[in-house]
Write a structure and sequence with these properties.
Layout (H helix, E strand, L loop, with lengths): L4 E5 L10 E2 L4 E5 L6 H11 L7 E3 L3 H9 L3 E3 L1 H8 L2
Parallel strand pairs: 1-3, 4-5
Antiparallel strand pairs: 2-3
Helix pairs in contact: 1-2
Length: 86
């Protein structure tokens, strides 16, 4: 689809890993130990230009509300699964 995919995980205590690329369009990011992945996701949405479409996949209600408030489209994991199986 040409979409850029960013997976964000909470960092490991004391040693967060740098961003990594998994395939051509997937980036994996680990937050510093003192930053929650939820906050990193919301910061990424907020820093994206408003004319660029963003879809956040999360079942976390705080992330869903925050992402919508920042202009992102939000889907749950169950909504994404059928698309991945195509």
């Amino acid at each position: 689809s040409g979409a850029e995919i960013v997976l964000v995980f909470d960092g490991v205590d004391g040693a967060s890993a740098p961003a990594r690329t998994v395939g051509s369009a997937v980036r994996v990011r680990f937050t510093p130990a003192d930053v929650e992945a939820d906050d990193e996701i919301l910061d990424l949405v907020a820093s994206t230009p408003p004319d660029r479409p963003v879809v956040v996949v999360s079942d976390d209600r705080r992330v869903q509300r925050g992402a919508r408030a920042r202009g992102a489209n939000v889907v749950g994991v169950r909504q994404l699964q059928p698309l991945l199986l195509r």
